[in-house]
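Teaching assistant here, posting this on the class forum so everyone can see the example we discussed in section. The complex has four components, and the goal was to see what a joint structure prediction looks like when all of them are supplied at once.
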Amino acid sequence: MTPYVEQSNPQLKVYISVVHQLKDMIQRDRLTSGDRLPSERELSDRLGVGRSSVREAFRALELLGLIETRHGEGTFLRDFRDHRLVELLGMFILQNGQAENDVVEMKDWVESASFNRLFLSGKDGIEHLFDTIHAGFNKGEISTFTHFKSKLIKASGNRLAYKVWLVLHDFDTEGKKEILPLSEELIYDVKNALLTGNMEFIRAICTASDQ
Amino acid sequence: MTPYVEQSNPQLKVYISVVHQLKDMIQRDRLTSGDRLPSERELSDRLGVGRSSVREAFRALELLGLIETRHGEGTFLRDFRDHRLVELLGMFILQNGQAENDVVEMKDWVESASFNRLFLSGKDGIEHLFDTIHAGFNKGEISTFTHFKSKLIKASGNRLAYKVWLVLHDFDTEGKKEILPLSEELIYDVKNALLTGNMEFIRAICTASDQ
DNA sequence: GAGATTTATGTGGTCAGACCAATTGTTAAA
DNA sequence: TTTAACAATTGGTCTGACCACATAAATCTC
């Protein structure tokens, strides 16, 4: 009926504005990963909003992996590179009767492209990478072919691709178990294939391991 | 009905478990975009948790753009394409250009692999596909190169890859505009390249259009 | 009876307060 | 000095209250 005075931003929810103010605060104060954010109660007080609204903003950012909360300690900023956007998106994209073939194929694509990227990165990088992988293998930290492969993909340098691969892999390997044992010899073969650009060999190995 | 039995993992926060149960519910009930989710109060009751915990889960998913809440109406599932990945990335993550490079590169991978898949599908499929594309072009339905490209990727057959491409493309083209005009000749050239397996040509075109 | 108006109900939006649990710093005791 | 008990701070969760918005039902008006 009577047109009432509209507020500055009628649609904007409080928790959204808190998110934005947090972003501004982070930029203004040059906060980086590990830095502590104000407590929920202090922020609630300072911004003049209810604590529940602050929590809604915090929980949203926490689910995204942008902040980390420790009970009794406080809320801390995380490395933004550790965001969980891909996982969350994948959680809802990869749901309704997703064709398994699509997932497997896409995973193959990411793997192939990652290996190719690794090959293009040059000899030195590969040598150094396999030094650490060998060390990990000897210490028993890397014991499965899948783990070995994930190290390679991660090391290939595209963080996004690695995250996507992890999600696809999780979805793809529901209830499956590792069948291909990892040996020093296998690692050596893959290394040689990467050095020489023998991508077919690597694909063959991966195909054999992905049952 | 059956009250939710408290989960075994005591560390798991309530709102996280709500997120997972929402995912399961969506999956189980085959909910798709536009469908309504239970109200906060009903969910709170059904899951045996406080309404504030349900809200924390809802707010997180809302910030991601996976759900939509309408005051007085309820909470609805959104199309995954309405995700807020772009804004969130821009707000917090896009500090180093690396993240952006990752997106561009990964998009390239998906495109290349899709085109290759199309090539492998054989002559008949490509001919038929371009019949409909030509029709769409003449009717003005397909007027940009990007739209043309998206048709190809979608037609390549991997629905998941298409979804992923849409997300990546959204991010990649933030604030950019189409610069490559779509012509009948260009369509013809791409078709020939697909028929002959001239992937380099297609990549060159795409690279030229993706500024 | 048809249309407009009011009411009731359901829903999200927000806040305040209470209580618990975990952590840390301070104080008191040994 | 070391250790134990305590207090303060902080996140985790629930409950209840109230408002704003939307829709369906009941009511009124013509």
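For the discussion questions: Confidence is low (pLDDT under 50) at residues 1-9 of chain A. Chain A has two domains: 14-82, 85-209. Think about how each of these relates to the inputs above.
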